[in-house]
Amino acid sequence: MRGLHADTGYLLYRLGLRSGQLFNAFLQESGLRLRHYAVLRFLATSQGALQRELSERLGYDPSAIVGLVDDLEKLGFAERRPAPEDRRSRIVVLTEAGRAFLRDTDEAGLHVTNDLLEPLDPAERETLHALLLRIAEPDSRS
Questions:
Q1: What is the pLDDT of residues 8-35, one digit of tens each?
Q2: Distance CA 86, CA 77 (A)
Q3: 48-74 as b/e: b if 16+ CB within 10 A
Q4: Does residue 139 register a pLDDT over 90?
Q5: How far apart are CA 38 and CA 76, in angstroms?
């Protein structure tokens, strides 16, 4: 019988837990969690998104997205606006305060990632990143 650490899926799960713990500890002072941070990071790369799109792209339950966006609105980091193509729909957009928060936390976020990946040399980190992208974004495969 294989040992637990011979199971790659388990190791990925453990890595995800550790990463989440480190990021949540770094975000603790702001009152945010990693899920909020993921929404902000996604919005920073778009002109806004429907809540349905956030749910699909981030892999979060639609009801969780509603609460996350509510929290971000209360902090002034995001806001819901009428969608340009359909005024009945609302898109979520990053505010200037949200952009400032991301700028202010960039260095600390990189520090968390560097701590997590400390056992790897730069080439190994690049390889790991490329492999994780291939697994995490199966639609991007050629």
A1: 889 999 999 999 999 999 898 888 999 9
A2: 23
A3: bbbbeebbeebebeeeebeebbebbee
A4: no
A5: 16
Q: Which runs of E-coded beta strand occur in the chain?
A: 49-50, 78-82, 90-94
Taken in order 7, 9, 12, 17, is the CA torsion positive or negative?
A: negative
Q: How far apart are CA 73 and CA 36, in angstroms?
A: 11
Cβ contacts of 64 within 8 Å, gap of 6 or more: 35, 55
Cα(104)–Cα(132) distance, integer angstroms: 26
pLDDT in tens, 36-52: 999 999 999 998 999 99
Per 3-state DSSP, the chain is made up of helix, strand and coil in percentages (nearest 5) of 70, 10, 25
Model pTM? 0.82
Contact call for residues 90 and 51 (beta carbons, < 8 A): yes
Give residues with Cβ within 8 angstroms of 68, minimum separation 6. Answer: 35, 36, 39, 60
Q: Which of 115, 17, 114 is nearest to 9 (CA)?
A: 17
List the one residue out of 75, 125, 66, 116 whose CA is nearest residue 99: 75
